[in-house]
Fold this protein.
Amino acid sequence: MRPLYVSRTACITRQSVSVNGKELPVSSGDGRFLAAVYRTLGIDYPKFFKMDNLSKLGFLASELLLREDRPRFVPREDCAVICFNRSASLDADTLYQATIGPGEDYFPSPSLFVYTLPNIVTAEIAIRNKLYGETSFYICEAFSAHQLFTTVSHAFADSSIRSALAGWTEYGNEVCEAFLMQIETFPPPETALPFSVEFLTRIKNKL
Amino acid sequence: MGKSSFLRRMEEKNGLAMIVWAGDNIISSLGFTTEENYRAVWSGQSGIRLCDAYRGIPEPFYASQIDRKQLGDRFAALGKRPAGYTPLEQAAILSVAQAADQARTDLSAPDVVFILSTTKGNVHLLDEGERADSPRLYLWHTARLIADYFHNANEPVVVSNACISGACAQIAAMRALASGDYTYAVVIGVDMLSRFIISGFQSLKALAPAPCRPFDAGRQGLNLGEAASTLIYRRAAGEEHPHTVSLVQGAIRNDANHISGPSRTGEGCYLAIRASLEACAADDLAFVCAHGTATAYNDRMEAIALTRAGLNRTPVNSLKGYFGHTLGAAGVLESIISIHALTDETALPTCGFRQGETDYPLHIAERRLRTEKPYCLKILSGFGGCNASLLFKKQKKTDETIVC
């Protein structure tokens, strides 16, 4: 197997937002937390406001990783998007469920229903960045350094994959946490770290 | 030809390996064994029926459902009380138990991994007032429950990648086996109907007002269906072990276009097909088992992608007219039927198809076709613009031929 490197990291929790371990000040304002992060990053992507919370969270983490890339939005098939979490799309599920109550409360919402799949976050990232490679979503009981490492490493066995945006995106039951990495095969700049179970275990302890 | 770059790369690391079929089972509206299901499809039976007044849903719809009474009875015969398990859990466990019997494998062994494919798991419990923090609603919990039933201690893998999940789970199995981490992978695809799922597809105006007609010019939408299916794969060292069918290649690609609408150019589907055809010549394909949901957009998208890939003359079928769209189970169920059709030297017909479209004409299988070609391709597409392909290869006949 080719050695893999983590060239960038992005982390979002309600307490802090950071890129490559460096904290980014978020002007909280009076709005919601994820909208505040969106405004702080100065992104202009109105589709953001249609997304469910899980997609917003993953989208913002991917923007943190890629926003300084120039050129951006160059179509590529060699980059995979692989996310993991604990509760799949349960946050969106409960919102949709509220639209299908009994009797007169039955007004199923198609715009909420389309977000009741966890892999939509990987699609939002792929659409924004024109990534035609593999998109996958896996569910674990808790952040599993071992499963994340093996699953992402195995994805590189697909000979056309040279890079991946991968990590943990969990939203629901009071939890809001994203940890996303840019993982690559080519020799990295000095700031890059070997992608390994040890690296992921250190991250897990910080989340 | 015949070996994918993925397997070649893994071989460099782990020595020669093939990912071979070891056992399977299908539970659906058409029966509780693979044989019952394959025979029903072979003879043109469909499990799709009109469902009226389903749990307070105002509009009737067509769907295929697993017989709950039989499911409960058969599950009870395993020796566990059905009351402790949801119908989805019962169906999954019963399916795995039957596949394991066929594979003659001890699923509690440390070199066995469970891989679950489901889109919505026990989502019906939300409707029954289950709180959002109840473990029963979590997909990892469903997987753990199934693995625990078979005393398997390894962390199960759960794939939830919309309607292509069943293919993704097989690709995950292929990678886990080829890497040498495990010897057996138990791939389970399961989804059941619920008010949640039916109302959602109705709200998207995706359901047909009649039994679905994949690839037909007059198609009006899809039917939903219930299924639990299990495919057990084994890592075999090269050609030493006689076997019948192997999973040669698999790929996942995204349209990068829209979260709920298929690409107008079939981009992701085409790229996924191209990646799998790396390992086989188009001329060696017995058939392509398409996703073929019978929605206007999906079938057209697949027709474009297949045409772009040069497969417009290869026999193509869709199995949705027999089972409906079984969501997270579809990739596993339809792979099993395709594997058996491949060894049966048959391309199965597309139930519901009468007349094709003229702008992207395909060779849609209308009746059973005899074919001795060694490969078949399974393709799937789903919400989130995701697409997957799987390439299966039949080996020369041996004493271990699958009997269906």
The radius of gyration of chain B is 20 Å. Chain B has two domains: 5-236, 245-394. DSSP finds twelve helices and 16 strands in chain B. The longest strand of chain B covers residues 18-28.
